[in-house]
Amino acid sequence: MKRFRLSISPLFLAIFAASGILAWSAPRAEKGDGILLSTMQTELERAKTSLAKSDPAPYFLSYEVYDQRTLMVAGAYGTIVTSAMGNHRWADVTMRVGSPAMDNTHNENRDSGISSGALPLADDRDAIARSLWELTDREYRRATPAYAKVMTNNSVQAAEEDKSPDFSEEAAQAHVEAPPAPVAFHQKEWEEKIRKYSALFRKYPEVYSSTVTLQVEQTTSYFVSSEGSKVETPGLVARLVVEADTRADDGMDLVRVETFESTNPEGLPSETELVAKEEKMASDLKALREAPLAEPFDGPALLSGRAAAVFFHEVLGHRLEGHRQRGETEGQTFTKKVNQPVLPAFLSVYDDPTLESINGVPLSGTYSHDDEGVPSQRVPLIQDGILKNFLMSRMPITNFSKSNGHGRHQAGFMPTGRQGNLIVESTKTVKDSDMRAQLIDEVKKQGKPYGLYFEDVQGGFTLTTRELPQAFQVLPVIVWRVYPDGRPDQLVRGVDIVGTPLASLNRILFTGDKTEVFNGICGAESGSVPVSASAPAMLFSEMEVQKRSASRERPPILPPPGFEETSGGSAPASPAGGAR
Amino acid sequence: MKISRRVPAWRVAAIVLGFLAASPFAAIAQQKTLPAEAAADPILRALQAELTRSKSQLKMDNVDSPFYIEYRVFDVEQFDASAAFGALRDQNRTRLRLIRAVVRLGDYKLDSFFNAGQGISDILPLDNDELAIRHTVWLATDQAYKRASEAFSNKKAQLKQLNIEQPVDDFAKADPVISIGPLAKLDFDPAKFSKMLESATSVYRNDPQIQSVSANLNFTVLSEYFVNTEGTVTRHGSAHYQMALSASEQAPDGMRLERSPQFTAVRLDELPTPEEFQKDAVKLVADMKTLREAPVVDEEYRGPVLFSNDASTDMFFELIVPNVLGRRPAPGRPARTVGAFASSWKARVLPDFISVVDDPTLDTFSGHGLGGSYQVDDEGVPAAPISVVDKGILVNYLIGRVPIRDFPVSNGHGRASGSGNTAPAPGNLFFRASKTSTRGELKKQLLDECRTRGLKYGYYVDTLGPRLAPRMLYRVWTDDGHEELVRGAVFNELDIRALRSDLVAAGDDPLVSNRTGLPFMTIVSPSVLFDELEVKRADNTKEKLPDYPAPALAAGRN
Question: How far is A289 from chain B, CA to nearest CA, in Å?
């Protein structure tokens, strides 16, 4: 049974950054990129010509190289936990044997299309050529037996429902953006800042553990293909992730995460701004520890723009990924719904990787060319509630024979259709400031004791396969009960949004008038890619929530070091001996 | 290095290379009281503060207080680099500080050390900030205590289902020890070593047929701290410097051929010089050429085989080491230990002219630094020479503080390979022969034995690869004694039975083999002669040769 866990969560950043391969190295030679790109082209041509004589011969070959500089500094409690600068070069060799109609990457053999490895850090023409040759030879040995297997399966198995070819025809691209000068990393200065930023939580005994992580990545990607494409695109991203957690007396772990993202390290928030956020995180955690547990609920709910954005990413976005429409194990919720209404008519959804920011907030899923060298474009997915298009890589599906620039991957994985910047637009809006009043009206109308307001979420995941329930989950962190009788809103903890996709999407009554952005890292079959989702706040007539399952491990027994002798018995941590 | 699942494998790089050097191998004396230097050590201070607090206050309702708590800090500094085809691919300097907190409930006879109750690992701050370090230790201790209490209930429930005839204590008593040694630091010139790797791997230019040439190095310096509630406090440093070459190619018939000579030392000056490393690389490429042109072994051979000292260290490491460790079987299993020698105590496991001793207290052997040296093990128990096999008879297992039947106390072999659990492992394991022969005498004995059996040649194995498959294997011809390199062989039934019954002679050439990886350990053994072993043709599928040639060299051949 195949199972994918798809998620969008800044929490993943820390893990992602941590497992990345970070190397330290001498600065690279001047004017080196010419050598890298030209060696890639020469070696690609040589492989193409030489292997043309082999049987079976590849009909497509591409080299993609990532030249990356990274800085990661992580701190906790006023100290540095890890600090690393790195320099890394990685090559993906993609090969297709057979014909576009049917090749070695067919169905479950998709991974046979790619082989990856490290490249020399220096611009040594001979060493680069030799490394690419090794990878190409290795890839050819993978692709050919896979192709034989595909041909055999094809002759013994029943015809597939979707008879689309395995690879779309696309025009060759030439796009060379010279990489900018290496950005200064200022590692020592950042270490000092991270010490300072992470020290703030020292004064909050109820914050059990916390980390502040800075990650800067400057990557230039080089792509050449046997079709004649040559694409060079630079990129720079800086992220600051603050994570803090605590545990309620009943054992429920409570987490707050704040992520800041910018196209350069200087664009990250100032100390004042950050400290304010951290103070808010600490007080949120304190309030959450004391908040009552949510009860299972089915009733009106207001989702903030960020919460609605994650909801759409999980519930809709993943199900519009092109390759899921032909996967025979996939649920295919939307495959046969093209030109049919799938959302209320006042909603439209598009994915636009060409857009760099919304309301001044930079978007994570921006790129000029996708990982198959296809230019990015704005793709209207749903217009006035009607399904129009899918997120297409170069894997065609019935009635959609071309890529629309959404073939994305993490280095080392075969690209599939993925989201970039998913944007939800609405024509039925009320002022954001009126949304709460509207929620109360809806609660009264339905005669419910209260409605729920989802202020913030940390991410979610969804299952799209046939064997498992077509479920999704959004993981809210700040949720309020809003009472119709004028009582103040009440924070609750341990809420999970659940439900089935089609039903829940059609319970949206109207939206707010301001778009909010959620930036995150999304993981799926083709690896982790940066994405954004943007949406206005939304009022749902009905939303189903369940109680989050939690461990029963109590908060720490002893107070934190440094808080042992707090006077007056008001021990700052949990009551001592919080026992069973 | 193993760290817990909760903790991401952060790879840390530092750019300041000018660390102070201190020899990690200065003699470590055992002290009666904590020296002032240790009393001021911020890590030891933080550990002691949490140890004291937890010992006296950690208590949940209806759950016992811990009877034992220990903390082990593992401060690892590493430099890794790799190069291929004359160019650097990777260069990292990383530092990570890890803690393992173990909390035991119950008593020495029956305790909570079981499944998830065996301790908690986490990452400690690199800064010497006592309060911040204590904060992490506090959380790890709390979690370890709660896990221990759950594990203890589970363990007791499981034991109720079993009938245990010869109960063995769960945890051995040990005397408190104070042993404070100097810490180790990495101090070297990275540019020099990166250059060595680049220069050595550029030898691929010498031979158009060789497919891959790479080299890597790993320098690891450890500072370990250990405290427990019995009063033991230890601190010591150790270092390990490893360099390796690696080459891969295919013979004309497609057979994959690989070699990976490596050098491991405890002092930087024991590593090859740039000139020596270069010479080794040139020789490696030349050997690879001879190897791919060498004939494939005959289908089957049964007769005498001579192992070089290098090959015999690998063989003893694989066949003997796992079987002489006192590792406790699962609860209820009646075996004394785990492994092939579980029932061999006081029985013959090697020929009577071979004895095996583990001696972690020795720093050098014939001037070579020994990697497996230590004065106190990772459970705070002092090391001592232990006779493992005496004149062929198994007399001891190497054991830590988890007792096995008939071995109630530790003999100082509880060793850690990171922030995971300690486990029994050797330090410096010496294979000593009571009668030895020169290389010439061994070869003569090999040939005499061949002639007696009417064999035209015998085998001499110079180096072994993974799974004890020979890499440099020679036929030694009886007519004129010449040695002929062959390829494509495996041994059949090279096992503990062969060691016990078919080993007939040993050389006078003991070789120090410092093993790679953690915990650091060393095997010292001479050449050995088997009077009968089966050598047969490997049943490996042969890959196709590359479909197109390697790229022409722009910068020319060497």
Answer: 18
